[in-house]
C-alpha cells in the first residue's frame, strides 16, 4: 500500500494520521521541522498526516523514539498491517456497505462482473486475488461472504439484479468455477426476495453500457445510489440524480429478458463451460 490522491478510509490509518498530528503539534513542530529532525521529507509527513500514505515500521519506531511514546506508533502501525485488507476498498464503499445492510430494497445493474452479493467463494477469490497477497485476499473473501448474508437473513431486502450477458461470459476463472458460479445464480433466483434478469448481447447499445450502479431504498430515508469509477466509490444522495438513475434502471430492465428467458440464457452459458 503506497501513496494516493485520496485519503484512506481505513480507521487504523486515520488513527495513525491523527495521532501523528497531535504529537507533532504538542511538541510545537512544523511538518518541515519534524521531517528534518527524523530524516524524512516534508511531503512524506504531509502525506501520512493526510492519511494518504501508509507509515512503515521504521517510521513508526522513529516516532516512538523521538516522542517517547512507549510504542504507541509501533502498535498502531501493526494494527494497520493487520487490517490492511480494508485499506484497498474504494473510498465510499465502507459507508455504502453500512447503508446496504439497512436497505429494504436493492436494485443492481452490473455490466462486466457477477455482482459481489451473488459471487461464490471461488469466483470471489478469483476476482479479489488479482495483485493481492494471500492474507488480504482471504480476509476480503470472508467479508464478502459475510456481507451476502443479507440476502438470506430473516426479513431480507427485496433485491433485483440486472446483469449484462458479458458478466456471464467473462472468464474470471476456470470452467469448473464458472459453471458453479452460474449454477449459484440459478439457485439464488429461486428465492422469493431475489430476481435476476439478463440483458442479452444482441441488444447492441443501451444505457447500461455507461457503467454499473446500485440503488438502495429505505423504509424511512431517501434512496441513494452507489457506483465505482476507476477504483473510486461514489455514494450519491442528490434526489434529482438518484431519480435519474431510477429511470435508467427501469429502462434497462425493459431491455432485459424475462426471468425465465434469463434463466435459460444462464443455463446455456453454463453448459458452454463444459
From TrEMBL:
Residues spanning the signal sequence: none
InterPro entries named among the record's database cross-references: Cro/C1-type_HTH, DUF5753, Lambda_DNA-bd_dom_sf
SMART domains with a match to the protein in the record: HTH_XRE
PROSITE patterns, A to Z: HTH_CROC1
Pfam families per the UniProt record, alphabetical: DUF5753, HTH_31
Residue ranges annotated for the HTH cro/C1-type domain, each copy included: 20-63
Stated name of the protein: Helix-turn-helix domain-containing protein
Organism annotation: Actinomadura violacea
Amino acid at each position: 500500500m503506497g501513496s494516493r490522491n485520496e485519503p484512506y478510509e481505513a480507521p487504523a490509518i486515520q488513527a495513525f494520521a491523527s495521532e501523528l498530528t497531535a504529537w507533532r503539534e504538542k511538541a510545537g513542530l512544523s511538518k518541515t521541522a519534524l521531517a528534518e529532525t527524523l530524516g524524512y521529507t516534508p511531503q512524506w509527513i504531509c502525506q501520512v498526516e493526510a492519511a494518504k500514505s501508509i507509515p512503515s515500521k521504521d517510521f513508526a519506531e522513529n516516532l516512538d523514539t523521538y516522542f517517547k511514546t512507549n510504542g504507541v506508533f509501533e502498535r498502531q502501525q501493526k494494527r494497520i498491517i493487520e487490517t490492511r485488507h480494508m485499506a484497498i476498498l474504494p473510498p465510499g464503499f465502507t459507508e455504502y456497505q453500512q447503508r446496504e445492510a439497512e436497505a429494504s430494497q436493492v436494485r443492481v445493474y452490473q455490466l462486466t462482473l457477477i455482482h459481489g452479493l451473488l459471487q461464490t467463494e471461488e469466483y470471489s477469490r478469483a476476482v479479489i486475488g488479482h495483485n493481492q497477497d494471500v492474507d488480504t485476499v482471504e480476509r476480503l473473501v470472508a467479508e464478502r461472504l459475510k456481507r451476502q448474508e443479507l440476502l438470506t437473513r430473516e426479513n431480507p431486502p427485496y433485491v433485483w439484479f440486472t446483469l449484462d450477458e458479458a458478466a456471464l461470459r467473462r472468464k474470471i476463472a476456470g470452467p469448473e468455477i464458472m459453471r458453479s458460479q452460474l449454477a449459484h445464480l440459478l439457485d439464488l433466483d429461486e428465492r422469493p426476495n431475489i430476481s435476476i434478469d439478463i440483458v442479452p448481447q444482441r441488444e447492441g447499445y443501451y444505457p447500461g453500457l455507461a457503467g454499473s450502479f446500485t440503488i438502495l431504498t429505505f423504509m424511512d430515508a431517501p434512496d441513494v445510489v452507489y457506483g465505482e469509477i476507476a477504483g473510486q466509490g461514489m455514494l450519491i444522495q442528490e434526489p434529482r440524480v438518484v431519480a435519474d438513475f431510477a429511470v435508467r434502471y427501469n429502462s434497462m430492465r425493459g431491455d432485459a429478458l424475462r426471468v425465465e428467458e434469463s434463466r435459460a440464457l444462464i443455463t446455456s452459458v453454463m453448459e458452454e463451460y463444459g
